Amino acid sequence: MGTAATINHSFDLSFGGESSDQVFIGRQPILDAQQKIIGYELLFRSNSTDNAARIEDDFSAGAQVLINTLSNMGTEWLMGDKLAFLNVTEAMLTSEFMELLPAKRIVLEIKGEIAPSPALIERLQALKELGFQFALHSAQINSDNEPLIKLASYVKVDLLQAPLDRLGDIAAKLKQFQLKIIAEKVETLAAFKRCKECKFDFFQGYYFAHPEILTAKVINPAQALVLDVLNKVRNNADIAEIEKGFKRDVALSFKLLRYINSVGFGLSCEIQSIRHALSILGYQQLYRWLTLLIVTSNEGATPPALMKTAITRGRLTELLGQDMVDRSERDNLFIVGIFSLLDAMLEMPMDQVLEKLTLPENIADALLNRDGIYGPFLSLSEACESADMARIDELATALTLEPAKVNEAHLQALAWVEELGV
Fold first, then answer.
1. Does residue 110 sit in the same domain as residue 132?
2. Contacts of 191 (CB under 8 A, 6+ apart)
3. CA distance 411 to 347
4. Which of 15, 164, 350, 420 has the least CB density, counted as fewest CB within 10 Å?
5. Which stretches does DSSP call E strand in 197-286?
6. Whether 66 and 197 share a structural domain
7. H helices, E strands: number in the chain
8. Into how many domains does the chain fold?
9. CA-closest candidate to residue 275, choices 245, 239, 233
């Protein structure tokens, strides 16, 4: 094992069991001759024990996994200040998704079967103007691919396909094209030394490090947007900024207008614009509605029973404490109850969940430790759910709540959720 073996750190980032809505990504370092990391190749995995890279040909699977993975894991800790080398299909190259990536940090590895059609070359030129770089494989360096070669910055040489005694000739040929040469699948010290002798620029392979497997629970993009808008509302951002958030997601805007134009809302005129809807709702009611949306926006990912439990818990916590806190704080009781299951929904520890939200300290205390002014009411709600009679009696006594009051609140909460049709 080479001297750079220490870079193969193991990250335990799994927030729950493997499931269809988890994505996995391997990253293998790319180093210079001094074994300094200059970038990573990101290798998609179908599960945490998959040792073979899985690059989907299907646009939906490939592009969606690409964007979701990078956005949810965060490019900062995936790459730091390094380059990210990504294998891409032709469908992904021509997709508007590419513009969502941090162009100046991305090297797109063009697969060998992609033909350099005029339309594709035009697209690659546009991507290059945005800051993207391209990498080819040595087999692609031929007269048929001259338009691709002119756009490329890197070329990869697979050492399992290129005998060590031919590396000098291969490197000399490639150097004519002014491309940086990356030796991949470097598995021995002898191979590394030979590549350095032949003036290869960069190196990648098991000699340095096996790919790390990084895991993250995918957060539905709509849900991530709801979190962002919720933070803006909580911080009393200008209504124009909040409106921008809604305009970023058609579904979110549709749900807002559908809600405010519903028969039960009691408006005498139909609301047409997002800004008008926001001004009618007001910040407090908008905040409350967004918290409900948090647990309903990720349809298909959150089990219906868990979603229903969260909403019930929110309403029950509010009802239990409504006579014991100021009117302005009742919404906070609801928030505490409904957010108390976000760790289960997102399959990550609550402290990491709270890093995604900007919440008052008293709410955070209740969610993390069941402390503060709201914590006991949340604990009582949980005891009611589990029918822990001894615990219910203990907490109700401490809060000076009569058993009849607790039962009434519980029944009201259950009925309210049924009326919502959740």
1. yes
2. 159, 164, 183, 205, 207
3. 29
4. 420
5. 202-203, 212-217
6. yes
7. 19, 9
8. 2
9. 239
Q: Which amino acid is at 257?
A: L
Nearest by Cα to 318 from 410, 422, 421, 415? 410
Specify the pLDDT at position 45: 53
- Long-range CB contacts for residues 85-88, cutoff 8 Å, separation at least 24: 85/30, 85/39, 85/40, 85/41, 85/42, 85/109, 85/135, 86/41, 86/42, 87/41, 87/43, 87/53, 87/55, 87/111, 88/62
Q: How far is CA 267 from CA 263, 284, 285, 292, 329, in A?
A: 8, 18, 15, 21, 26
- The confidence score (pLDDT) of residue 335 equals 79
Take residue 380 and report the two structure tokens written for it.
Answer: 């009582």
Q: How far is CA 121 from CA 125, 154, 262, in A?
A: 6, 17, 50
For the segment 294-315, what is each residue's pLDDT rounded down to a tens digit?
766 555 555 566 777 888 898 8
Compute CA 184 distance to the chain's CA centroid, rounded to the nearest angstrom.
29
| 134 and 198 share one domain | yes
Cα gap 183→206, rounded to integer Å: 12
Clarify whether residues 290 and 195 are in a common domain: no
Identify whether the C-beta of residue 140 lies closer than 8 Å to the C-beta of residue 148.
yes
pLDDT band at 370 (very low <50, low <70, confident <90, very high): very high
> Do both 91 and 157 map to the same domain?
yes
Q: 385 is in which domain, residue-wise?
A: 221-420
The terminus-to-terminus CA distance of the chain in angstroms comes to: 56
Tokens of 318: 């509010």
Quote the distance between the C-alpha of residue 86 and its chain's center.
Answer: 17
- Of the candidates 29, 27, 26, 34, the residue with the CA atom closest to the CA atom of residue 3: 34
* 231-271 tens-digit pLDDT: 888 888 888 888 877 766 655 765 676 667 554 455 556 55
Task: Judge residue 391's burial from the number of C-beta atoms within 10 Å of its C-beta, 0-12 exposed, 13-18 middle, 19 or more buried.
Answer: middle
- For residues 240 and 279, is the Cβ–Cβ distance under 8 A? no
